C-alpha cells in the first residue's frame, strides 16, 4: 500500500510517499481502506520529536481518518466488510495511508449521507473539544464560553460545540481575517489578542464578570489572560500549548477566584475508555448527520502534498482542518 512516511524528524521533517507493508487484522482488529486522514497540530509535534510519545523513523504519520472496512479479525462482531467507519489511532497513528489495521475499539460507524472525506478530520478536534466542554467542564446552556485559538482545529470545533450546547461564545485569535471566518462559523464575539487587551475585552463583553468557561489550547500569555478573565466559580480548560510556553496557574488566583483549572487529555481518555469514546463519537456524528454540526475543511491535499499541508499548519494558515486524501478519497470527491 501507499503511505506518507516520516523518514527523518525535523522542522520541517522529511516526508516520503512510499510503498509500506499492509498488515492483516489480528484478534479484535479491523483493516480499513482509508479515503482520507486529518492533518493535526500533533503531527508537527510528532515529526519534530516533541510529542510526549516519541516515534523513531521510519513511521507512517496520521492519527485519524475515515474509510471502509475490508477485513475483520477473530472476535470482531461490531463491524463487517463494507462498513463505513471513522478511526482514531493515537498510539500507532498510521492513517496517512491507503489502509490502516487497528483495534476495532478505535472505530465507529459513519451514518449514511456523510461523505468520508468530509469527516476524516473530525474525531480528534470535535472529540477533544466535546470531551473538554461536556465531560470535563460541564458547560451549561446560557453560560459564556471563551474559546482561545478559535480559528484552529480544536478551537473552531469548540466554537461550534459551544453554540450547539447553548452558550454565548467569545472567540479569540491573532488574525482578523481568520477571526472573521470564525464569526461566520458561529462565534457571537471575536477578540484579536494582538490588537486588543484580551482579559479586559472579555470582561467588557461579560459586564465585568468574565467567562464561565475558558477553553485554552494556546497556553502562555493567553492562559495568563484567561486567569484574569474567567468568572468567579468558573472553569479554565487546559487543552494544549500551541503558543509554546507551558504556563503555571497562580494558586492565590485559583483560591480567591474560586477557579477550577481542568485538564482535558482526550488522547488518554480515548485509550482508557474505548466504549465511552465510541459513544461520544456516535453522539457527535448524529449531530453531523442531522446538520447541526458542520466540520470546516480548509483544504484537501494528495499524499504527495503532505509537506505543504503540514507547512500550512505550522504557519498558522489553516481555518478548521486540512485532510490528506488517498486515491479512493479523490475518487469520492
Ligand atoms: N488535549 C488534547 O487531548 C488535545 C487534542 C488535540 C490538540 N491538542 C493541542 O491543542 C493545541 C491546538 O491544536 P490545534 O489542532 O487546534 O492546532 P491548530 O489548528 O494549529 O490551531 C492552533 C491555534 O492556536 C493559535 N496560536 C496562538 N499562538 C500560536 C503559535 N505560537 N503557534 C501556533 N498556533 C498558535 C492559532 O490561532 P491564531 O493564528 O489566530 O493566533 C491557531 O489557530 C495544540 O497544542 C495541540 O497539541 C490537545
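^ C-alpha cells above, recovered residues below v
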Amino acid at each position: 500500500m501507499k503511505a506518507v512516511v516520516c523518514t527523518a524528524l525535523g522542522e520541517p521533517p522529511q516526508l516520503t510517499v512510499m510503498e509500506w507493508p499492509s498488515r492483516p487484522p489480528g484478534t479484535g482488529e479491523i483493516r480499513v481502506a482509508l479515503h482520507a486522514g486529518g492533518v493535526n497540530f500533533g503531527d508537527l509535534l510528532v515529526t519534530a520529536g516533541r510529542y510526549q510519545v516519541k516515534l523513531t523513523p521510519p513511521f507512517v504519520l496520521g492519527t485519524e481518518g475515515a474509510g471502509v472496512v475490508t477485513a475483520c479479525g477473530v472476535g470482531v462482531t461490531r463491524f463487517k466488510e463494507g462498513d463505513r467507519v471513522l478511526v482514531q489511532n493515537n498510539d500507532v497513528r498510521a492513517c496517512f495511508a491507503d489502509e490502516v489495521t487497528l483495534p476495532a475499539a478505535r472505530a465507529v460507524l459513519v451514518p449514511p449521507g456523510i461523505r468520508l472525506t468530509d469527516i476524516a478530520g473530525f474525531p480528534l478536534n470535535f472529540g477533544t473539544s466535546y470531551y473538554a466542554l461536556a465531560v470535563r467542564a460541564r458547560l451549561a446552556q446560557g453560560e459564556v464560553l471563551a474559546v482561545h485559538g478559535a480559528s484552529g482545529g480544536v478551537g473552531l470545533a469548540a466554537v461550534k460545540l459551544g453554540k450547539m450546547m447553548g452558550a454565548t461564545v467569545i472567540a479569540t485569535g491573532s488574525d482578523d481575517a481568520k477571526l472573521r471566518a470564525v464569526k461566520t462559523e458561529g462565534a457571537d464575539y471575536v477578540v484579536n489578542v494582538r490588537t486588543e487587551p484580551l482579559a479586559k475585552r472579555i470582561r467588557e463583553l461579560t459586564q465585568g464578570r468574565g467567562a464561565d468557561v475558558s477553553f485554552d489550547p494556546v497556553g502562555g500569555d493567553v492562559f495568563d489572560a484567561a486567569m484574569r478573565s474567567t468568572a468567579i466559580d468558573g472553569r479554565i480548560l487546559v487543552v494544549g500549548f500551541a503558543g509554546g510556553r507551558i504556563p503555571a496557574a497562580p494558586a492565590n488566583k485559583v483560591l480567591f477566584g474560586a477557579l477550577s483549572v481542568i485538564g482535558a487529555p482526550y488522547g488518554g481518555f480515548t485509550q482508557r475508555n474505548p466504549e465511552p469514546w465510541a459513544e461520544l463519537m456516535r453522539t457527535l456524528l448524529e449531530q453531523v448527520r442531522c446538520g447541526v454540526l458542520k466540520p470546516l475543511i480548509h483544504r484537501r491535499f494528495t499524499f504527495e502534498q503532505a509537506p505543504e499541508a503540514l507547512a500550512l499548519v505550522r504557519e498558522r494558515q489553516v481555518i478548521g482542518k486540512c485532510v490528506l486524501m488517498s486515491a479512493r478519497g479523490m475518487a469520492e470527491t
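The chain is about 35% helix and 30% strand.
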